[in-house]
Design a protein that fits this description.
This protein is an alpha+beta fold. The protein has 4 helices and 9 strands; from the N terminus they run βααβββαβαββββ. Strands 1-2-3-4-5-9-6 form a 7-stranded mixed sheet, sandwiched between helices. It is globular, with a radius of gyration of 15 Å.
Amino acid sequence: MEIRDLVPEDRDGVGRLIREVYRESSLAMWYEKEPTEQELDKLFGIKMAAIGVGGAVDIVAVDEGRIVGECEVVSMGSYGKIGILIEKAQRRGGLGGKMLARAFERCPKLGIGRVVAEVAEANKEAIMFFKKHGFEETGISEDSINRHGRDYKVAYLQREVSG
């Protein structure tokens, strides 16, 4: 398993991963519907541009040429917002922790001292993952968001990043 920085050639693999995770649990993704190729192209372009200007860290896990995980931390000024995707078959084996560690090594260079996760409150698996890796729950949204005809509250978790 290789853990490395995202590169332009990863577009198709990341797109496939996003779609797979969406199909498995749309709750894990903030998309209203499965993203189209055009939307994936736009998203990937934004990712690469943010990396290019020092506004994001994006790490991928590659197993025998296949992208099986992605961890992104986007600078929001004084903090970073994290997103992480892992193929179902690769979960609970330490891959998420390895990607977090690699991303967190890079955060101080971008001026990120704190990382925030925004997770649907009903996504207990993701909340447990972040807590296992040192994130503390800081609150639940007062307002709900509607995804797929259901209302969800958002759980906010954060962790300090040492530099």
